[in-house]
Design brief:
The protein has 300 residues and is an alpha+beta fold. 14% of the residues lie in helices and 28% in strands. The protein has four helices and 17 strands. The protein has a seven-stranded mixed sheet with strand order 13-14-15-16-11-10-17. The chain has a three-stranded antiparallel sheet with strand order 1-2-5, with no helix packed on it. A hairpin with a 2-residue loop joins strand 15 and strand 16. The radius of gyration is 21 Å and the shape is globular.
């Protein structure tokens, strides 16, 4: 690098450092609220001080779509980290699906207690870049994690298809959908009427609020799970334990639920995991599971 180029590079670096310092100072001057966030079983919980959450972002990249993520950008939290109440980083399983941008700070709003995520303003983005940038100013950055699967930003996400399972027949008016977690360790096939002709269920119970699951309820025998998936599935129960909730052990994506009395049959399938489905265009039915199901969910 020549001397003039070195000087220009140093000036750019200094300008960027000044910009970040100014934004951090401005962010720290905004009044903060303290939120408590936790996983559903409450094994991991933390507090975070950040600007009041009044709007969240929903990204359509392959990871966020399957996770049902609603993100709350948190300017200033790089210097005001979360404080663990229980559990912590050593108790979490990390899954890195894309390259991360240094210095970014965003938190899963679904995990915040006492925050009604369904009442917040939800902004939808094809490429969600919160990080340290000014609130709700988003740009496309090819190095960032959240990539719209529909644009030509390599590497393209390719959903894995279930192998070793096929339906004997598919009646007229029915379709076969390929489903998988994000990493592809858990795969299955669903036989259903076209999803755009159905109404999917969006429940607000404590569990679905955290996962953002969108369910359809197929008939018995209309879901075929690949044989190799079993070793990668872990299950979770709560409340009256009528349901078994399936998760991938590797990437943590919620895939389906089963009735405890019929563990071999899929009771509900999370349509977020189905290939070729635009979840933003589906018709949704709200289910007040929080009020309907007993016992009421409580955390310490």
């Amino acid at each position: 690098m020549s001397a003039p180029e070195a000087i220009k590079e140093a000036q750019r670096s200094e300008a960027e450092t000044d910009r970040k310092s100014e934004e951090a100072a401005a962010a720290n001057s905004v009044p903060k609220e303290t939120y408590i966030a936790s996983c559903h079983c409450n094994a991991n919980a933390y507090t975070i001080s950040m600007p009041k959450v009044s709007e969240v972002a929903e990204c359509n990249c392959s990871a966020c779509r399957k996770e049902g993520a609603l993100w709350a950008p948190a300017e200033g939290t790089v210097t005001t980290p979360r404080s663990w109440i229980r559990g912590g980083e050593d108790h979490l399983t990390e899954y890195e699906c894309f390259k991360k941008e240094d210095g970014s700070a965003k938190f899963m709003a679904r995990a915040f207690r006492d925050v009604g995520v369904y009442a917040l303003e939800i902004k939808r983005y094809a490429n969600f870049i919160p990080a340290h940038r000014k609130s709700w100013e988003f740009i496309i950055n090819s190095d960032y994690a959240c990539r719209n699967d529909d644009i030509n930003t390599p590497p393209a996400y390719i959903q894995k298809k279930a192998e070793g399972v096929e339906f004997d027949s598919v009646d007229e008016g029915m379709k076969v959908y390929d489903g998988s977690c994000h990493c592809g360790a858990v795969t299955w096939k669903l036989k259903s009427k076209p999803l755009e002709d159905l109404v999917v269920v969006e429940c607000n119970c404590s569990f679905c609020k955290r996962n953002g699951d969108l369910y359809v309820y197929p008939s018995a025998g209309f879901v075929l799970v690949s044989p190799e998936s079993a070793q990668h599935i872990t299950q979770y129960q709560f409340g009256k334990k009528r349901l078994l909730h399936d998760f991938c052990k590797l990437c943590g994506v919620s895939t389906m639920e089963r009735m405890t009395k019929e563990p071999g049959e899929a009771h509900g399938v999370n349509v977020r995991c189905l290939d070729g489905v635009d979840i933003w265009q589906l018709k949704k039915k709200a289910l007040d599971g929080f009020a309907k199901y007993e016992p009421q969910y409580k955390v310490e």
